[in-house]
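Subject: sequence -> structure tokens, single chain

Hey, anyone have a minute? Need the predicted structure for the following. Not urgent.
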Amino acid sequence: MLRSWIVWVLVICIGFGGPAQAATLDELYQSALEASYRGEFGRAEQLWSEAIALAPDNAALWSNRGNVRVSQNHLEEAIADYNESVRLAPNAPDPYLNRGTAWEGLQEWDKAIADYQQALQFSPGDAAAHNNLGNVRLSLGEYEQALSEFETASRLAPGFAFAGANVALTLFQLDRTSDAIQRMRSLVRKYPNFADMRAALTAVLWQQGQRGEAESNWVAVMGLDTRYRDLDWVRQIRRWPPAAVTALEQFLALQ
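Reply:
Had a minute. Here:
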């Protein structure tokens, strides 16, 4: 999980550019955010670069350009941006959180862990940092530690649905199937259009022989997000743990 660093950028213009330059920077900032949210990452990168040219000492701009570079899988360039953001704002948690995500993309697990732990030093209640740290632990096969991080993230941010989903998936990985199903069903009741948990329920219930409920959930999944048919996406992008991926693979093989 990446996080955009939202700041009021006009204040940094005082004393070096006057109102006209401040307005230009604010317009660039808003346009870059909008392009980022629309998924126009190349355009967003260009706009963030223009903003950086006007305000090179603004750490948020560097971090936000790093985010759109991560979204384009330009991970080394993103890390260079985050490094500059950290240099400019060494006590801010967001650049560490975001750089950790880039390190994850490069499978530099120790560096990712170090960045997430640093983010938590500055912001102990950061649910995103705990969730991301759980993802790293999951990738390393440290499932009990992953579960602890996901549970902390879910407790800190009860509305953070994917943290709750990660708890459920990790419970299944740890052979706590009954607990996993209970958590999945609870999330689906709370968020009926949550494709991730409906797909997980499909896989787990099918494996448990509850075929009717499994197929009913799958129909809903296909109406919400067809990416769950792609096991590579589930494994590498969504990053389900191995047991859940295997269960989904078994279901798909019989469709």
